[in-house]
Structure formats: structure tokens, C-alpha cells
Write a structure and sequence with these properties.
Order of helices and strands: HHHHEEHEEEEHEEHEEEEHEE
Radius of gyration: 24 Å
Structural class: alpha+beta
Number of strands: 14
Largest sheet: 7 strands, mixed
Strand content: 25-35%
Distance between the termini: 53 Å
CATH architecture of the largest domain: Beta Barrel
CATH topology of the largest domain: Cathepsin D, subunit A, domain 1
Number of domains: 3
Helix content: 25-40%
Shape: globular
Length: 290
């Protein structure tokens, strides 16, 4: 193919201006078609949710907004998943049925300020769609039979929480640890009552299935703290997926006593070195000096 391309380029260099313009005219429609195809891909199917007025939307009750958000997922899930795959994205920001922003990481999930600005400027509701989180449920929590789930104790603080304030203002979770999941899943109601997160009308509720059951969650940046074997606290701030109705969600089906689910992003974001001791059924966070 490279050899053939070189020959074609040599031929083009030998063309006179008239013949070269003819070639350019023949290529132009192909470029135009590609631009049209990209536009079609980036535009959602026509439906009423994308024409909702932003100010009217934020004035609705939480339940009413969630019904609209669920309808947006139901009407557009095939297109959303296709766009997430096409763009290699973890989330899409869609306004008036067009993708206006996307990213391969939840670390830059759109802020409230961003959503408000887009809503006020466009006059329409900005919707955020998130890629389906991977939860592999590989099996130290005691499970039915002779089975255990590795656990890791973590402290969760509000965004911007300092290390020295984490023990006083944060919440402690004994999280099931699953390297098959790239995300951190937390109990929304416990986070809300513990003042780690709050709720505002512009916040988006996401709906995704797991084990055949649809659950809903919010994406919030939180401070995560872990204590190593020498008693030193390490912290990082990154997105947590806060699951509504935690105990009734499919994330507790495998282990009804689950408090949180810690994914491999804890290993990668800090990064952490963990020792999983199957004999003692213990997890140890190794210090950086070992």
C-alpha cells in the first residue's frame, strides 16, 4: 500500500494545474460526505427531551427531573453507547441532541458550573451520559459457603478535604475490593447524610444495568484516604460513583453486607501496593519505603 501511495503521489506531482483541479473536485464530495456522516453520528435521534427549556427543568422537583433523565437514557441508549464507543469516551455532554464535549476519563466529568453555563447559554437542558461501569464481581467479606471477598478500609471526605481533617469529618467504609472494576462505588444516602456530598437541581442521575437490574448513581469527586502499615494516611481526590438505594441495588446482591466497592482505580490513582493474605484473610497497604 505504501508503494502504491508513493506512485500515486508521483503521478499527482506531474499533473498540470487543470488536471490537478479535476482530481481535487472528484475528491471534494468524498470529504463532504465524511463531514456529513460525522455530523449524523454526533446528532442524537429526534426526541422531546432535548428541547426542554433549562430554567423550567431546574424548577422541577427531584423526582420529575429524574423521570426526564431516565427517559433521556431510554430513548437514546443505543445512540449514546455507539457514540461513547466511537469517541473512546467515559462520558458525553449532549445539548440540543448534539455532543458538545466528551472525555476518556471521569476525572473531568462536567462540573455543576459547566452545566449551568451550557444550560443558560443554550436555553436547553444539558445531559451527561456515562459509559456503563464495569463490575466483574470476582470473589474477605464472608459469603455463602466457604468464600470470602477481599476488603480494604477507606475513609471518604468531601471534595477539597485536607488530610488532617479526614478523620474528623470523613466517613469510614470497609469496602469490598475488586480489581475487576475500574471504579469506586459508594452508598449515596450515607454520603448525603454524612455531608460528604450534597444535591442541586443541575446534578445528573445516571441509569445503568447490572446483573439484570437497573440502578442509578451520581458522579461526584471525593477525597479517598487509606492508611498504610506504618499508620500514615495517603489521600487522592477522584470521582466516586454514588449509588442510590444502595442496599436494594444489584451491587449488594453478591454480598448483602457490602458497604462500598473499591475498584482498581485505587491501585492506579494513588498508586497503592496491596498485600492480599489469603491465609489470614487480611489486606495490608504496604508503605512506599518497603
Amino acid at each position: 500500500m505504501k508503494a502504491e501511495l508513493k506512485e500515486v503521489l508521483k503521478m499527482l506531482e506531474q499533473l498540470n494545474p487543470h488536471d490537478l483541479s479535476v482530481v481535487q473536485e472528484r475528491i471534494a464530495p468524498t470529504r463532504k460526505l465524511k463531514r456529513m456522516q460525522d455530523k449524523i453520528k454526533a446528532t442524537a435521534p429526534k426526541n422531546d427531551v432535548f428541547s426542554l427549556h433549562f430554567e423550567e427543568y431546574v424548577a422541577l422537583s427531584d423526582d420529575e427531573r429524574e423521570r426526564i433523565q431516565l427517559r433521556a437514557y431510554q430513548l437514546n441508549h443505543s445512540w449514546v453507547d455507539a457514540e461513547l464507543d466511537r469517541l473512546g469516551a467515559q462520558w458525553l455532554l449532549v445539548c440540543r441532541g448534539e455532543v458538545i464535549q466528551s472525555s476518556p476519563t471521569l476525572r473531568d466529568y462536567p462540573s455543576r458550573e459547566k452545566l449551568v453555563a451550557v444550560g443558560k447559554e443554550s436555553g436547553c437542558v444539558p445531559f451527561v451520559f456515562v459509559k456503563e461501569p464495569l463490575i466483574e464481581e470476582s470473589v474477605w467479606s464472608s459469603l455463602p459457603g466457604v468464600d470470602f471477598y477481599p476488603t480494604l478500609q477507606i475513609a471518604i471526605g468531601a471534595r477539597g478535604c485536607r488530610v488532617e481533617d479526614l478523620s474528623a469529618t470523613g466517613l469510614v467504609f470497609m469496602a469490598d475490593f475488586d480489581s475487576g472494576s475500574p471504579n469506586l462505588f459508594l452508598d449515596y444516602e450515607r454520603m448525603l447524610s454524612g455531608n460528604i456530598i450534597d444535591r442541586q437541581p443541575v446534578d445528573q442521575t445516571h441509569f445503568r444495568p447490572h446483573l439484570g437490574q437497573v440502578y442509578c448513581f451520581h458522579v461526584w469527586p471525593v477525597v479517598v484516604g487509606v492508611t498504610d502499615e506504618q499508620g500514615r494516611i495517603k489521600t487522592q481526590e477522584f470521582p466516586g460513583l454514588c449509588v442510590r438505594n444502595w442496599q436494594q441495588s444489584p451491587l449488594c446482591r453478591v454480598n448483602p453486607n457490602r458497604e462500598a466497592l473499591a475498584g482498581r482505580n485505587l491501585l492506579l490513582e494513588f498508586p497503592l501496593r496491596l498485600e492480599l493474605n489469603g491465609r489470614q484473610r487480611m489486606t495490608t497497604v504496604l508503605s512506599d519505603t518497603v
